[in-house]
Specification:
- It is a single chain.
- By secondary structure, the protein is of the alpha/beta class.
- It is 45% helix and 16% strand.
- It folds into two domains: 158 residues, Rossmann fold; 37 residues, no CATH class.
- The chain is globular.
- The structure holds adenosine monophosphate.
- Adenosine monophosphate binds next to helix 2 and helix 3.
């Protein structure tokens, strides 16, 4: 069983890299941000609790986040392991996580802030299936429509200049100390996230001694 955490600033490609890893290694991809977005989109009580915080680019309270992570991990659909994306994001979450689960590695995607801005402001999300697009690198075949389900593409509510500035500040202040905690335990591999997704994936697999990505074997 393999258990990984993937960390990186907004737009560093955490979701994409986690999906590529999960695809042929039979890992379950857990994204706390995706769980929150699903709840906002479906107007649940949790969605109502987190919507404004998310839109402002701030971190949701630790109690809510830990509850979501605990519930997700107790589903036990991860026989071969998991890759968790977007958690932990501060010291308290890191301690909660390390007390409850042992992990095999932390993948840290490193991207300079100027590149973050360029990527995040070009990001679009499918309003139907949640598929991610980036107008710089992966434009849909028909402008504004999802290639997979045909629904309209929208901009994430927190992908604005203002929210991005807040999120970058939150990241550097609160998430960098998490990396320091994990680094002390020698879990962290830092990978340059500037190249294209395939190159980044190749580098992650080399550094973690994992087999090369096999796109023909979706889980
Ligand atoms: P992401 O998709 O990972 O960028 O997450 C989107 C938003 O969800 C963040 O800006 C936060 O508002 C919230 N969020 C996701 N994960 C966490 C977390 N571990 N702790 C606090 N807030 C979170």
């Amino acid at each position: 069983m393999r258990k990984y955490v993937i960390m990186g600033v907004q737009g560093s490609g955490k979701g994409t890299q986690a999906r590529l890893l999960a695809q042929d290694l039979d890992l379950v991809h857990m994204s706390v941000g995706d769980i929150f977005r699903w709840n906002v989109q479906h107007h649940t009580k949790l969605g109502a609790q987190v919507r404004r915080t998310m839109a402002a680019g701030l971190l949701v309270s630790d109690d809510l986040v830990e509850g979501v992570v605990r519930d997700r991990l107790t589903q036990h659909d991860w026989n071969y392991g998991f890759i968790i994306d977007g958690f932990p994001r501060n010291e308290r979450q890191a301690e909660f996580f390390l007390e409850s689960y042992d992990i095999d590695g932390v993948i840290h995607l490193d991207l300079p802030d100027r590149e973050v801005r360029r990527r995040v402001l070009a990001r679009r999300l499918c309003s139907g299936c949640g598929m991610d697009y980036n107008l710089l690198a992966s434009s849909p075949r028909e402008a504004g429509r999802c290639d997979v389900c045909g629904s309209a593409l929208v901009t994430r509510e927190d992908d604005t200049e203002e929210a991005l500035a807040v999120r970058l500040r939150e990241y550097h202040e609160k998430t960098n100390p998490v990396l320091a905690i994990f680094a002390r335990k020698e879990y962290v591999v830092t990978v340059d996230a500037t190249p294209g997704p395939e190159r980044v994936q190749e580098e992650i697999r080399t550094r973690l001694s994992l087999p090369p990505h096999d796109p023909a074997r979706p889980s």
